[in-house]
Each structure stands twice: as structure tokens, then as C-alpha cells.
Design a protein that fits this description.
β6 and β7 form a beta hairpin. The chain is α+β, with helices and mostly antiparallel strands. It has 13 helices and eleven strands. α2 crosses α10 and α8 runs parallel beside α12.
Length: 397
């Protein structure tokens, strides 16, 4: 406790130098936690979006490739149609284990017939589905009935409404999916039967009818047999059906992944330069500090203080400043990212998933440990030099 009081007194007595070390620690911590939250969260979002699809290949009308990625990442509705016979044609191909159709729709912007504007609606076939149905059975115990739906993590029943309404059609929101940080979080899933029923009643209940062309689908999710090559099967599908594109889900979001990799390299370089400059500045600050306190340290040694005591006293100052600055940097950066998550997503063009509290605490602890080690290493050299110096030499002017 005496060493801590001495360290605090020395910090208060040299406020300018202390603030310099505090600022360097804050800067290092904020950069580390920001890079981890944003880049790591973006990578998690891309991975979870692919996992949520749950398919090896997704078949869509040719020309919708970029729009599909925008729909999955940012929740921008996409519309495109292809004949539903492609499902049977794909299912008959060698190496294909399962095929399930989906229809992509969207709510009307600003219409009173929809509870929430600009929702990405996805209708699936429960008889063949292998992505949504398994989650439903494990979470709510059964599949969806007519008029029931599950939503992404951002989908909710408005407080002033008794139920969820789409095109004037009441839906029961059974559950919410886990967050992904992508456009799937603002998507609504229901069965094809419900989609056709909404379309049937929409002319009388909505300002604009929901039009689903007969015998058409928006996409087909394909699961290949174990040991088969998805790339070969995707090529076979495109060769047999010139009007569709077969996308391997493992290759989705290539542009976004390259963008993230480039950004990660840039941020890593910036972190390295910032770390080197901050450590160099801390070394200079502590060198000046111990040089000014040579007589004080010499008197301590002459009165019986051991070298380890002097060293611990100086390092305690470094730890207090590093801890305070690091904690400030972590809190400010984490709060700013949480508040401006949507703005950052728009600027990057790639969504990112904010981590849950327990994971966030772990990341914060890692950033604090990084700052503490960095500041300790920077202060260790000057502290060792003065601690090992002869007391008589230390007290000379």
C-alpha cells in the first residue's frame, strides 16, 4: 500500500508526463479493441451468414449475384424469378443430396399494411427444407403452421400492435433467430403456404397486392452428398441450365472478404507504427522522470530501500497509468462502436456483429493485458537502470 501511495503521489506531482503515458495507453487500447471488434465482428458476420444459409450451393436467376449478396449482407430486398422445374432438374443430378426452393419477397415501404418497413421476406418449403426446419424443431419443437413466422434478431412485434402484419395479413411471430450482424437479422421466414395465402388475400387487405408469379421460385438451396465436389456440381448446374447461376456458398462475399483482408493489413500496420511510437514516447517519459528523481531514489536506497523496492515503485506507476489509460480506451472505443454501429457498417459496406457481453469482457481483458505489458516493457529499461545504480552516484547532482 505504501508503494501505491508513493506511486500516486509521484503521478500527481508530474501531471504532464503522467498524462502523456495515460494518453499513449488509452490510444493503444482503443485501437486494439476497435480493430478487434470491427474486423473480427465483420468476419463473424460473413461466416454466420453462410452458416445460416446451411447449403453448399445456392441457385438463383442469372444476373442477381451481386444483389443476392447485398440482400444477405445488408437486408436489401431482392426480387428475381425462375421456373420451379429447376428444383426437380437439380435433384436428378448426380451428387445432389437435397434441393429446397425459396421465394424472396419484401414488405412495402411506408405502407400501413405492414408492421415494419423494408423487411426481407423468405418463404421456404417445409417438405424439403434442410436449413430453417432443423432450427425450428430444436428451438420450438415443431415446424411452422399457416400464418406463423420466425424472424431475425431485429424483427419484433410493434408495441402498439397486437400482432405482426404483412400486406394486411396477420402473422404470429413464433421466435427469433440468433443475431448474425447481417441483413438476415431483419428477415422474416415463413412457409410457401403462408406466402401464397398472403398473396391471395393481399388485394383486399393491402394498398398493393403481393404478386407471386405462378410456378416460379427465387432460389434453390442445394446440399451435395458427402465426398462430392460442390464446385463440379455447380458447374454442371450452370451447364445444364444457362439461365441460372449456381453459387458455392463457401465463395460468397469474395469482394467483402478481400476488402476485409486489405483493411486488416492496413490496420495491422497502423497498430504496429502506433505501438512503436507510443512505446518510444513512454521510454523517453520514464527516462526523464527517473533522471529527475535520482536524488529521491538515492535517498531511498541510502535509507535501506532495496533495489527490488525501487524497481517495483517505478513499475507501479507504469501499471497504474497503463491500467487507467487502457480501461478508458477500452470503454470509450466499445461504447462508440456500439452507438455508431450502423454508421460504421454503411461506411465499410460490410456489416459486423457486436459480440455478447462475456466475449466483450474477454476482448477487453486482452486489450488491457496488451497495454499493461507494453507500458511495463517501456518503463522497465529506465527503471532497471536507476534501481541498479549506486546510491551515492544517484544522489549526485
Amino acid at each position: 500500500m505504501r508503494l501505491i501511495r508513493l506511486a500516486i503521489r509521484n503521478i500527481a506531482g508530474h501531471s504532464f508526463r503522467s498524462w502523456m503515458v495515460f494518453f499513449c495507453a488509452t490510444l493503444m487500447a482503443s485501437l486494439v479493441i476497435s480493430a478487434t471488434l470491427i474486423l473480427g465482428g465483420a468476419d463473424d458476420s460473413l461466416r454466420l451468414a453462410v452458416e445460416r444459409l446451411g447449403a453448399d450451393i445456392i441457385v438463383i436467376p442469372k444476373g442477381l449475384e451481386q444483389r443476392l449478396e447485398s440482400a444477405l449482407l445488408m437486408g436489401i430486398p431482392v426480387h428475381g424469378w425462375m421456373p420451379d422445374v429447376v428444383v426437380d432438374d437439380i435433384a436428378a443430378m448426380p451428387g445432389v443430396q437435397a434441393v429446397s426452393p425459396q421465394i424472396y419477397l419484401s414488405t412495402l415501404r411506408g405502407a400501413t399494411c405492414c408492421s415494419l418497413p423494408e423487411l426481407f421476406l423468405i418463404a421456404y418449403d417445409p417438405a424439403t427444407d434442410f436449413t430453417v426446419r432443423p432450427w425450428l424443431e430444436s428451438s420450438i419443437g415443431d415446424s411452422l403452421a399457416l400464418g406463423e413466422a420466425v424472424g431475425g434478431s431485429f424483427v419484433y412485434v410493434p408495441a402498439d400492435e397486437e400482432g405482426f402484419v404483412v400486406y394486411g395479413y396477420p402473422l404470429e411471430l413464433r421466435a427469433n433467430l440468433a443475431p448474425t450482424g447481417t441483413g438476415l437479422d431483419q428477415s422474416l421466414f415463413f412457409t410457401l403456404e403462408t406466402a401464397y395465402d398472403i398473396a391471395l388475400h393481399s388485394p383486399d387487405q393491402a394498398v398493393k397486392a403481393l404478386d407471386i408469379p405462378p410456378r416460379t421460385i427465387s432460389s434453390a438451396l442445394v446440399k451435395v452428398r458427402t465426398g462430392e465436389d460442390p464446385q463440379r456440381i455447380a458447374q454442371d448446374i450452370e451447364a445444364a441450365m444457362p439461365l441460372v447461376s449456381a453459387l458455392e456458398t463457401a465463395n460468397l462475399f469474395k469482394d467483402q472478404r478481400h476488402q476485409l483482408l486489405s483493411l486488416m493489413n492496413t490496420v495491422t500496420g497502423l497498430l504496429a507504427v502506433t505501438w512503436a511510437l507510443a512505446v518510444a514516447l513512454i521510454v523517453v517519459v520514464f527516462a526523464l522522470a527517473v533522471n529527475e528523481r535520482r536524488r529521491q531514489i538515492g535517498v531511498m536506497r541510502a535509507l535501506g530501500a532495496r533495489r527490488s523496492t525501487v524497481l517495483t515503485s517505478l513499475l507501479t506507476e507504469a501499471w497504474l497509468l497503463a491500467g487507467g489509460g487502457g480501461l478508458t480506451g477500452v470503454l470509450v472505443a466499445a461504447l462508440a462502436i456500439a452507438l455508431f454501429q450502423r454508421t460504421i457498417t454503411r461506411m465499410m459496406g460490410v456489416p459486423f456483429l457486436y459480440p455478447p457481453l462475456l466475449q466483450l469482457v474477454g476482448l477487453a481483458a486482452g486489450a488491457l493485458a496488451f497495454v499493461l505489458v507494453s507500458v511495463s516493457l517501456a518503463a522497465l529499461g529506465p527503471a532497471l537502470r536507476i534501481a541498479l545504480q549506486d546510491p551515492a552516484l544517484s544522489m549526485k547532482e
